[in-house]
């Protein structure tokens, strides 16, 4: 995991407003969200079974995450690498792996080591600057 130092950390916004903006930029609400926290995730690079993501975590300060007007605070964005086995497996999901990818498969490396850290730090910071430029009207300082 590579933490990024950006201007987004500590900013506040309404969840519904920024969710629409993040979606426009190719981000999805991370699958590990709870009513009091979550993250927006996007793919920076995908090569074979190796995927590098940018994750923008946030906490809910007021309301619940499933409400448009939930008030959120952004935390430190980071870049993470997941590595999955793209070969065929002989298990209960073998029909799902016939295409070479099993969506239920655990990553071989959940938090794989990032090579070329400066490259991914720059790519992550550039992605966050793009977010700030696009959603700036909905952000407020802490």
CATH class wording: Alpha Beta
Major sheet description: 8 strands, antiparallel
Please report the number of helical segments.
Answer: 2
How many DSSP E strands?
8
In the CATH hierarchy, what is the architecture at level 2? 2-Layer Sandwich
Amount of beta strand: 25-35%
Please state the oligomeric state of the protein chains shown.
single chain
Poorly predicted runs are: 93-105
Q: Can you tell me about this structure?
A:
By secondary structure, the chain is of the alpha+beta class. It has one domain (2-136): 2-Layer Sandwich (TATA-Binding Protein), CATH 3.30.310. It is built from 2 helices and 8 strands. Strands 1, 2, 3, 4, 5, 6, 7 and 8 form an 8-stranded antiparallel beta sheet that branches. A hairpin with an 8-residue loop joins β5 (50-62) and β6. The chain is globular, with a radius of gyration of 17 Å.
Features:
142 residues, alpha+beta, TATA-Binding Protein, eight-stranded antiparallel sheet, 2 helices
Task: Write a brief caption for the model.
By secondary structure, the protein is an alpha+beta fold.
Topology record:
Layout: E1 2-3, E2 12-14, H1 15-24, E3 28-29, E4 37-47, E5 50-62, E6 71-74, E7 78-83, E8 109-112, H2 117-135
Antiparallel strand pairs: 1-7, 2-6, 3-4, 4-5, 5-6, 5-7, 7-8
């Amino acid at each position: 995991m590579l933490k990024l130092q950006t201007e987004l950390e500590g900013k506040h916004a309404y969840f519904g407003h920024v969710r629409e903006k993040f979606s426009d930029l190719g981000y999805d609400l991370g699958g590990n969200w709870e009513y009091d926290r979550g993250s927006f995730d996007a793919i920076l690079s995908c090569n074979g079974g190796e995927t590098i993501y940018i994750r923008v975590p946030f906490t809910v300060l007021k309301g619940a995450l499933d409400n448009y007007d939930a008030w959120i605070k952004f935390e430190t964005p980071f870049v993470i690498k997941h590595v999955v086995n793209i070969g065929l497996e002989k298990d209960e999901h073998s029909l799902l792996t016939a295409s070479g990818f099993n969506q239920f498969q655990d990553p071989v490396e959940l938090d794989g080591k990032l090579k070329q850290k400066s490259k991914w730090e720059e790519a992550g910071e550039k992605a966050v600057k793009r977010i700030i430029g696009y959603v700036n009207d909905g952000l407020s300082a802490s």
